[in-house]
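Run log // design_07
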């Protein structure tokens, strides 16, 4: 009896979600990400004034494809970052593809969460490319296949207001503790919140 009651309650809770959700949509937009670390589990010591400095942001594209509750996000970001040892200012390019779920709440809010590989590359003034691996160190490589296999699985959560065909909201991106296609140790799926990144996006839903 209790199990049936729980199932009924869950079904009723999903009614407004289904009623206000489209079957398919595709959106393209822009995103900005705070490049310094933002630990969502410990915000007490965070210097909020850093959010107001333009140089602390990276900018890029946010593409979202959704079928019922399943969503695939593709995010590309460009920023400038110091080399971890030489402190030389380098070009930073980050690409993330996630698969997950998203839910519409009463037609006003869309909440999503996904997981996928993130490739993060640093390029110097001579065009030399280094890619971050799952151990948090740089590999001097231009082999995309190798970089993809070593790319850390990364979580991305999104909360957006639905303003007609526009999604306006915030997102939070955080790497796992080293889980990759090359090293599928499930113990490494834990998110590294101390290195999380806060961002904001505006996405135009085309259809």
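design_07 sequence
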């Amino acid at each position: 009896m209790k199990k049936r009651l729980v199932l009924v309650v869950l079904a009723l809770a999903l009614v407004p979600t289904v009623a206000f959700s489209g079957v398919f949509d595709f959106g393209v937009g822009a995103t900005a990400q705070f490049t310094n670390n933002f630990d969502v589990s410990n915000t007490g010591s965070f210097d909020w004034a850093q959010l107001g400095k333009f140089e602390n942001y990276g900018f890029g594209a946010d593409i979202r494809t959704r079928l019922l509750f399943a969503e695939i996000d593709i995010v590309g970001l460009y920023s400038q970052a110091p080399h971890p040892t030489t402190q030389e200012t380098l070009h930073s390019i980050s690409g993330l593809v996630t698969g997950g779920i998203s839910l519409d709440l009463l037609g006003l809010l869309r909440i999503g969460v996904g997981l996928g590989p993130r490739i993060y590359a640093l390029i110097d003034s001579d065009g030399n490319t280094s890619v971050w691996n799952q151990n948090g160190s740089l590999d001097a490589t231009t082999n995309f296949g190798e970089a993809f296999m070593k790319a850390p699985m990364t979580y991305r959560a999104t909360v957006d207001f639905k303003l007609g065909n526009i999604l306006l909201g915030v997102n939070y991106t955080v790497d796992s503790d080293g889980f990759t296609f090359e090293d599928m140790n499930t113990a490494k799926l834990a998110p590294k919140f101390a290195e999380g990144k806060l961002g904001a996006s505006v996405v135009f839903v085309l259809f």
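The CA atoms of residues 34 and 57 lie 5 Å apart.
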